[in-house]
Specification:
The chain is of the alpha+beta class. The protein is 25% helix and 41% strand. A six-stranded mixed sheet has the order 1-2-3-6-5-4. The longest helix has 16 residues. The chain starts with a helix and ends with a strand.
């Protein structure tokens, strides 16, 4: 579990840069009752294991789930489209993920598993929230 902390920090950093809006909350640990924090981007990363490739021997494959919640469908859709665009080619847009001067990791490859799609049920208790869920595969190297 501890090795997920640097990955979560890197994903938080890059998603914050992708969204590029201080009004949007980016979090890995949402408060599901936090209607006042909308819009928000919720993400989770799960390791798919080490990469069995000589050049990327120190790397690891990660499944990244992203949910975008907003008070209107249009707002959620716009944020989800931005996230999908940048996450699909993450290695081209953010080959190295940095937090200030510190390099957190490098992105060797990224791909869309499923494009963000409107969810019929939201992660929040509010019924008037639009949510889009998407998933990505990201190969990270130190």
């Amino acid at each position: 579990m501890p090795r997920t902390l640097p990955v979560h920090r890197a994903l938080h950093t890059v998603l914050t840069q992708i969204v590029n809006d201080p009004r949007v909350t980016v979090t890995a640990e949402p408060d599901v009752d936090a209607y006042e924090h909308l819009p928000m981007v919720i993400f989770a990363a799960t390791s798919d294991g080490r990469i069995a490739n000589a050049d990327l021997a120190l790397g690891e494959s990660w499944a990244v789930a992203v949910s975008v919640c907003a008070k209107t469908n249009r707002a959620a859709e716009e944020i989800a489209a931005s996230v999908a665009y940048f996450m699909a080619d993450l290695q081209d847009h953010y080959p190295v993920i940095r937090d200030g001067a510190q390099q957190l990791c490098s992105v060797a490859y990224a791909d869309v598993v499923s494009l963000p799609d409107r969810a019929p049920v939201t992660a929040t208790v509010a019924k008037d929230v639009a949510q889009y869920n998407g998933s990505f595969r990201v190969l990270l190297t130190p």
